[in-house]
Amino acid sequence: MTRPIEAIVVGASAGAVQALSRLLPNLPATYPLPILVVVHVPPERSELATLFGAKCRLRVKDAEDKESIRPGYVYFAPSDYHLLVEDQRTLALSVDEPVLYSRPSVDILFESAADAFGDAVAGIILTGANEDGAAGLAAIANAGGRAIVQQPHEAFASAMPLAALARCPQAEPLTLDAIARQIEAWAS
């Protein structure tokens, strides 16, 4: 039997705001799991935490270096920083080189979350126009975690979901509505 999910990591790029707007605002303020999100954004300051903070009942913030991961929070990777999960279940920010032209990188978040949480992490790849996240989702699946991909035909940009399914064939392709139901189910 697999352990209950203790954290959810999400990666998205082109079309991310619309996809996340169908997943995050419906979660109740009492939702018990942390959700860590990487969205490919330009290096200038991102307003994603502000935008979703106004829409969501959960607490939403930009991740801070060495911050403890707390339940019921949505953490966004700040623009131009990689977001990592450390073994002590704290967050780390890095300015290491971009991965697949992206900083923040979905792969870096997902691979570090797989190392920190093992089979108690769920990874979700949403819409996007490159291959970032495919290797990270495979790392989560290989650690025994749950791997979910937005149905490519439903995605605004299908390259990221298609790459993730090719690299991680055991991932489950789901519609956004089904992903929303799954996120809610992990809380129980």
From TrEMBL:
Which keywords does UniProt give here?
Answer: Chemotaxis, Hydrolase
Q: Name one GO molecular function term.
A: phosphorelay response regulator activity
Q: Name one GO biological process term.
A: chemotaxis
Any one Pfam family match given in the protein's UniProt record, by short name: CheB_methylest
Q: What is this protein called?
A: protein-glutamate methylesterase
Q: What sections of the sequence does the record tag as coiled-coil?
A: none
CheB-type methylesterase domain mapped to chain residues: 4-188
InterPro entries attached here? CheB_C, Sig_transdc_resp-reg_Me-estase
